[in-house]
Amino acid sequence: MSTGGIATGHAISPDSGEHWAAEGAWRVADGIHRIPLPLPMDALKAVNVYVVEGDEDLTLIDGGWAIPVARELLEKSLKSVGYGFGDIHRFLVTHVHRDHYTMASVLGSEYGAEVALGVGERPALELLNNVGELDESPFLAVLRTAGAEEIAELWAAGNDGKLPDPSDWMTPDRWLEGDQSIEVGRRRIDAVHTPGHTPGHFVFADQAEGVLFSGDHVLPTITPSIGFTVPPADQPLGEFMSSLARVRQLPDLRILPAHGPVAPSTYERVDELLAHHESRLDQCLASLRARGSVTSIVVARDLGWTRHERAFAELDVFSQGMAAMETKAHLELLVARGQATSIDRTDGVVFTATT
């Protein structure tokens, strides 16, 4: 969801001087290029893959979505700066979502490149590789806990029954556990665990270069989805805000995001994101006070969505489900702060304000 500023759909990136999703291998810094790859069925338009030159090979931050058009563009863009798939030594993947992980999984297998992923993503990856054993999408159960039974039914009806391809979701060669430094040629890249958007999300800081490969953790024009993960995390919003505070403890760095333009200051954007979520928490608490004991979807209907503060009813069905789950994450943090209570019922988790 947007948090103000320039809209993602109109943002110009300073490294290219063009719309941030424009095709190319754009030089961000010496030995670092940004390659936007297309995303089907996604309002974000593209995901940024970053190419970091080592002494004799490449490290890629994220891999893109394993679809033919993205693979062809990645190959073309690498060739434009003198490289090919065989030059890739390693993928450092920020998190397990398909627009970040699946191309890394496929190319890593084909070309022998190491794929590294946060160990907190293991449960999700195991679920994806055993989805044939499930009776339905695990997200439907999450929607029901948010009181969104009708949306769950619509999501189920819209599922074409196609199962994930196991070749897109292979186990990584290396699990990242805890903060650590990774040598990339003469560079030292600090891997920093930043759970919230997903449990195993990592950002990668090149402090000498003054840049942060921020994945979906710090985005310049929107805030990432929170609560849209299976198996469900206990306190996704609390973890996300704590992880933002961890990034704020690093030096002020340029943001090299997964979606959107390169941006000048992690400090500025982290402060904006924290303020945004504190405001949403206040709005959720006000809704609970006004409505009494209700499920998350009732509160979600009281909130404005996107940068245009659209009514919940104006959102498409997929976005309504995302909004219900994100609202639930806010309400769960209110419970953790002692400002609300919750109780499980057959129609979902019901929240009540205590203050």
Automatic annotation (TrEMBL):
SMART domains noted in UniProt: Lactamase_B
The Metallo-beta-lactamase domain, residue ranges: 46-259
Single annotated GO MF: hydrolase activity
Domain of life of the native organism: Bacteria
UniProtKB keywords: Hydrolase
Regions annotated as coiled coil: none
One matching Pfam family: Lactamase_B
PANTHER family named among the record's database cross-references: ENDORIBONUCLEASE LACTB2, METALLO-BETA-LACTAMASE SUPERFAMILY POTEIN
Record-given protein name: MBL fold metallo-hydrolase
Species assigned in the record: Nocardioides caeni
